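Hey,
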Amino acid sequence: MDWKLSSENPQKARLSLVGAGPGDPDLITYKAVKVLQTANVVLYDALVDVNLLQHAPNVPHIYVGKRAGQHNMTQLEINRLIVEMALKHGHVVRLKGGDPFIFGRGYEELAFAAEFHIPTTYIPGISSAIAVPGLAGIPLTNRGDNESFWVTTGTTSLGKLSTDIPLAAQSSATVVILMGMSKLSEIVKIFKDYRYDDLPIAVIQSGSTPNEKKVFGNLKNIEERVLQSQLTTPAIIVLGEVVSRSKSYSDYLELLFTSK
């Protein structure tokens, strides 16, 4: 590296990569809370409920959040800051929404710290990809409906639609798409090509939080319904027969038929 870091207490430097869960602060794990209580500094993301910082009082809390089109810091700057804080303060807790190893770039941060011989620990979090549909009454697997589920990003690092989505659409699996709101029209078109127009679909914004908004529909009307409900990011898209198992989907159908 072409940059150097001073170290006041290198023998105490360590990094804990901690999953904060899907948004509801009560859904963080007990182990994660215990780790937070031992932090010397916390670096946290945009999707982390700030109430969780109360588990690490009297230590610096540094916001390093990134959202679509709104990057407070680059990933390299975050990596460097982790190392700098670990060498200066000791135990760094890197608090990330959901699970850090599911589209959270968590492994990149652990690997970077390891290059400086900083001990690292991974604390799993409840992934929004599973918890948010479940909290909306959608079982990602249900006997007779599907045999598997896919979790994929909707948008690659280059801003393109993931090439895995057409592959997922050709299967009978439930498909959960993260970071796909800007690609909803493309996603709908692909699924129309490989499945059927009445395929149940749900879009859930800010799942598990007080700001949660849910829209249910099918491939024919989901874009219009999302537009009418003014859903924005962060949101999860769920496609598959299991969506129809949610009571909210039944309520949608009842409203649909009574309005005709």
